[in-house]
TrEMBL record:
Domain annotation DUF1588: ranges: 607-707
Coiled-coil portions: none
DUF1587 domain ranges (all copies): 134-197
Classification via InterPro entries: DUF1585, DUF1587, DUF1588, DUF1592, DUF1595
Organism listed in the record: Gemmatimonas groenlandica
Pfam families associated with the record: PSCyt3, PSD2, PSD3, PSD4, PSD5
Record-given protein name: DUF1592 domain-containing protein
DUF1585 domain span: 721-794
Domain DUF1592, first and last residues per copy: 463-589
Residue span, DUF1595 domain: 388-447
Length: 817
């Protein structure tokens, strides 16, 4: 499976651009309807007087110097510095507060002049970036297997944690195919092929499903039967028809007793398969960890048919419940109830995990969705077996490889069929072939084929089939469908009109939710929600399900922007969101009932766009208090694309600042002011703190408050442009005064995700071109997506200077191209 011999590093030394101001041609991404100009000598003088004081050879603020700045040559000799200047000037962050600023629109003219120069260089010497091969990450692997075999898997069971670069998990430069990684794909292929086809000779094994400590054990688990509470549910693949044993483990108190053992009523646990009760377990309130079975309960062997089935272990709900006479409301997660282990509060039992063990005495394999997908033909005689297997291989293999199979491809895969069929028969042979397909580098890796005649260092168009793969993984996070494949194989996808039509078709498909659950979730850092654990003493209403609801709220919101082709700026201005009953109650909304999410209008005038989403407010908090620093940094980095530099060495963190003074608890603002008294901290915090303080009325879990530590909150601040802001509404308004950097930041992140590589300074002209093209269309998101898809960065590639030979299509399974 080694790919080292087939992939050469695509990164070549950066070219040195040489151009002068008088050679510039009209910008490919002009930003103004009319061109504003000033004499280069005037703008040079502005830079030296305004910027070179801090960005001198001695001080090098921001790690670069402008002491020798020359507008006529900066784009050619220092393109990275030119792009940095454009970014800072567009956000209005430079010069910093308190420093002299040139009069009038001088800085705007300087910005536009730099942009025209960089854009003109890009026209003369285009650079579409360099990307090595990609491999399927966990999420892509799961979606691809689901499309291919109708099998839902958890790739975490086999594949290592995805390494992130530029905050995304699909960036090629960190997807190194080590021996361990390749071995994990082999293990996955073996296991998934057996799950998909079933295994009448499966050996006994145990699968464990853990229940989070933060899970609400008083609420209904979505996939469990009605009339139950807590516990857990999961889809489990039963490999064969046979007997299985189900067991549960319950949580204990610190002294080994059963959590909830002091309840004045007996409890039962219901085991169900696909919603049908198969066992009922009685809980002995006197159970103790010291007993032989500890706090474990298990069923007798129960017959279950093969295939994917929803297994649930949940408490039977009783009319009795916890007496919350000292603490209300309570989230009924384990940390919450441990607070209340005392006589005054009655709590209920909590499940730690449940397991499925089997099969015992397997009797065969029943029909399943995956078997129906795989066995598109059934041989009636021994002579029909191999031809039938070839048809199955050709269909599944072509979809998995994202191109038609060659004669060599089929020969390689069928060799695995022949080997397995000798000892196990037709179905065993097909399983071996499916395993070979899933283990093939043509499935696992995504690499653009380059003609051997292509000139190293040249820019070439991506082939129609490779473009289909790029498009599908960008918009859907999975394999191309039959329609896209058909268009690609006829060589039509390289036509811009066809490409646009296919993109629009795919955006209308439900699978385009990948742009919200995959792209937006990573761009907005929603995965960090699970890293914050609010203190249960301070936030007893918080539980795991609430955190999941918060993440789903933002994902559904972004999905609606894409589906309805709304303006990107609705991220900041929307007066609506998506909630279910629990989240609505958390926000103080009424008239929302049930677990399903629906679109509602904000009833709280302080909530607006994603700045009012509980998930964003949670992920930018500490467990026991809000963090204006984290919130301000998040806005600057994620939304504005201008992250503050890391703190200087030997400067104490804000957490070290005393929490109290003269016997009085300090507010977060007071602690920040003490921290900012350090001159080395002030230069960055003057940008960060006002932004974060504007959101400080929202507590750790996103609920509105007006006091902290019994002191009135003071959220007043001066935005770096001098605008006074006191809350989320004012923050929204001041951000929208400069929409260009907000849109460019979105385009930058979308492009990185789409092309699977880090965005470099040389991508600046393309990003500006996309932003300019959608400005007159009110920045509608589908138009932004189309702009990325039509860009050279997406449709072209650079031929590596040292291009290793690629194996021909159909090289034997186990090789990589």
């Amino acid at each position: 499976m080694s790919s080292a011999s087939y992939f050469a590093s695509p990164f070549a030394p950066l070219a040195r651009y040489r151009a002068t101001l008088d050679e510039m041609r009209p910008s490919i991404g002009a930003h103004a309807r009319t061109t504003r100009t000033m004499a280069p000598v005037v703008l040079n003088d502005v830079v030296k007087k305004t910027c070179a004081g801090c960005h001198s050879d001695q001080r090098k603020m921001g790690n670069f110097s402008l002491q020798s700045f020359d507008l006529a040559t900066v784009g050619a000799t220092s393109p990275i510095i030119a792009e940095k200047m454009i970014g800072k000037l567009r956000t209005g962050m430079m010069p910093p507060p308190g420093r002299p600023r040139p009069a009038g629109d001088t800085l705007d003219v300087l910005t536009e002049t730099l942009e025209r120069q960089m854009d003109a260089i890009a026209v003369r010497k285009p650079d579409v970036g360099r990307r090595s091969f990609q491999r399927l990450n966990r999420a892509e692997y799961e979606r691809a297997v689901k499309d291919l075999l109708t099998v839902s898997v958890n790739a975490e069971s086999w594949l290592p944690l995805d390494t992130k670069s530029a905050n995304f998990d699909n960036i090629a430069d960190v997807q190194i195919p080590s021996a361990t990684v390749l071995e994990s794909y082999l293990d996955a292929a073996n296991a998934i092929s057996r799950l998909a086809i079933g295994d009448a000779k499966a050996s006994v094994s145990t699968t464990t499903f853990k229940v989070s400590r933060l899970a609400n054990q008083n609420g209904h688990e979505g996939d469990a039967p009605i009339g139950t509470r807590g516990g857990g549910a999961a889809t489990h693949y039963f490999p064969a028809d046979g007997a299985y044993v189900f067991s549960v483990s319950l949580h204990s108190t610190p002294i080994g007793q059963l959590v909830g053992g002091n309840a004045p009523f007996d409890e039962k646990i219901e085991i169900s398969v696909d919603g049908e009760r198969v066992a009922l377990l009685d809980i002995d309130r006197g159970m103790h960890e010291s007993e032989p079975n500890g706090l474990d309960l298990k069923t007798v062997p129960i017959t279950v048919k093969a295939g994917p089935r929803v297994v649930a272990a949940a408490y039977v709900r009783t009319f009795e419940g916890p007496v919350e006479d000292l603490m209300t409301p309570i989230g009924n997660s384990l940390p919450d109830t441990q607070i209340g282990i005392q006589d005054a509060i009655t709590i209920q039992g909590h499940m730690k995990l449940f397991t499925v063990t089997g099969p015992f005495n397997p009797t065969g394999v029943s029909d399943t969705p995956s078997r129906r997908r795989i066995f598109s033909c059934r041989p009636l005689s021994a002579a029909e077996q191999r031809p039938c297997a070839e048809r199955i291989v050709n269909r599944i293999g072509s979809q998995a490889y994202r191109r038609p199979l060659t004669v060599s491809d089929r020969k390689a895969i069928m060799s695995f069929y022949d080997e397995e069929a000798k000892s196990g028969g037709f179905e065993s042979g097909v399983r071996g072939a499916v395993e070979a397909i899933l283990a093939s580098p043509y499935f696992v890796f995504r690499a653009d084929e380059v003609a051997v005649t292509a000139k190293p260092g040249s820019k070439v168009a991506v082939s129609s089939t490779d473009l289909a793969s790029r498009l599908s993984f960008f918009l859907w996070g999975t394999l191309p469908d039959s329609t896209l494949t058909s268009v690609a194989q006829r060589g039509l996808l390289t036509d811009t009109t066809v490409l646009i039509a296919q993109t629009k078709r795919m955006l209308a498909d439900p699978r385009a939710d990948a742009l919200s659950t995959r792209f937006a979730a990573q761009w907005l850092r929603l995965q960090d929600i699970e890293k914050v654990h609010p203190d249960p003493l301070l936030y007893p209403a918080f539980n795991l399900q609430l955190a999941k609801n918060m993440q789903k709220e933002t994902e559904l919101f972004v999905a609606s922007l894409v589906r309805e082709n709304r303006s990107l700026l609705d991220l900041y201005t929307a007066d609506y969101t998506y909630v279910n009953e629990d989240l609505a109650r958390h926000y103080g909304m009424t008239d929302v009932v049930g677990t399903d999410f629906r679109r509602v209008t904000y009833t709280d005038k302080n909530r607006v766009g994603i700045l009012g989403h509980g998930g964003v407010l949670l992920l930018t908090s500490q467990g026991n208090r809000t963090s204006p620093v984290l919130r301000g940094k998040w806005v600057m980095e994620v939304l504005m694309g201008s992250p503050p530099p890391p703190p200087p060495p030997n400067v104490p963190d804000l957490e070290v600042t005393g929490a109290s003074k003269e016997g009085r608890m300090l507010t977060t603002r007071e602690r920040m002011e003490e921290h900012r008294a350090n001159a080395s901290c002030r230069s960055c915090h003057q940008f960060i703190d006002p932004i974060g303080l504007a959101l400080d009325n929202f507590d750790v879990i996103g609920q509105w408050r007006i006091k902290e530590n019994n002191m009135p909150l003071d959220t007043r601040g001066d935005y770096y442009d001098g605008t006074k802001i006191t809350g989320p509404r004012e923050l929204q308004q001041v951000l929208l005064k400069r929409p260009v950097p907000l849109v460019r930041t979105f385009v930058t992140n979308l492009m990185a995700y789409a092309v699977g590589r880090r965005v470099e300074y040389s991508d600046g002209p393309a990003i500006r071109k996309i932003e300019a093209s959608v400005r007159t269309k009110n920045y509608r998101i589908q138009d932004v997506v189309l702009g990325v898809v039509k860009s050279d960065a997406f449709r072209m590639r650079m031929v590596p200077v040292a291009q290793a030979a690629l194996p021909a299509s159909g090289a034997s399974v186990g090789q990589s191209r």
